[in-house]
Amino acid sequence: MQGKVLIVTGALGALGKVVAETALARGARVAGIDHAPSQISAMPERIEIGGVDLSDAAQAKTAVEAAARHFGGLDALVNIAGGFAFETVGDGDVKTWQRMHALNVLTALNASQAALPHLAASKAGRIVNIGAMGALQAGSGMGPYAASKAGVHRLTEALASEWKGKVTVNAVLPSIIDTKANRADMPKADFAKWVTPQELAEVILFLASDAASGVTGALIPVGGRV
């Protein structure tokens, strides 16, 4: 990752922080974009752009352009920003489906559209999306979330086909991620079966690297032990 310029959306979340820190440790320059306020001042190797609603195309474009200006270009976009809701279809609210679509599909779509011209100008443009293993077959209560993540899968495939030869586009499909929030929500689960943020970061950064030049349109499950 030495010298690569990455945008990580959702960079202040549990997974985003690990991906950003790991990329920095390997010599990358990282722009973190998040809905939460920025926590650090801009530095030559790192910038945080906070207070951004990536479900709004104009805000996404403004943030991506700011990152590209700061570093003089972009090499990779990692779309981690998103959300989760557990709600059955029969007892649910259409607003939940709309919120999941906005948080998971529109954030990735808007960031990707804004970044693509810059990524195409790179010698090794990369997009890595975060799908979900749970979107391959939705269980009870998983409808809104699984439908939105299935949309991320289809977005990944369409972009990969449209930009083949210019930008690689892949998605990582985690099982349950071992975070403090998930442990609090599922205290009786076997945490050893969950995938860690660091394990996911390794796969994400491989797909963002030069070594993954031959991989595009892939949906890669990670953490199949559950």
Automatic annotation (TrEMBL):
<comment type="similarity">
    <text>Belongs to the short-chain dehydrogenases/reductases (SDR) family.</text>
</comment>
<protein>
    <submittedName>
        <fullName>NAD-dependent oxidoreductase</fullName>
    </submittedName>
</protein>
<dbReference type="GO" id="GO:0030497">
    <property type="term" value="P:fatty acid elongation"/>
</dbReference>
<dbReference type="InterPro" id="IPR036291">
    <property type="entry name" value="NAD(P)-bd_dom_sf"/>
</dbReference>
<dbReference type="GO" id="GO:0016616">
    <property type="term" value="F:oxidoreductase activity, acting on the CH-OH group of donors, NAD or NADP as acceptor"/>
</dbReference>
<dbReference type="InterPro" id="IPR020904">
    <property type="entry name" value="Sc_DH/Rdtase_CS"/>
</dbReference>
<dbReference type="InterPro" id="IPR002347">
    <property type="entry name" value="SDR_fam"/>
</dbReference>
<dbReference type="Pfam" id="PF00106">
    <property type="entry name" value="adh_short"/>
</dbReference>
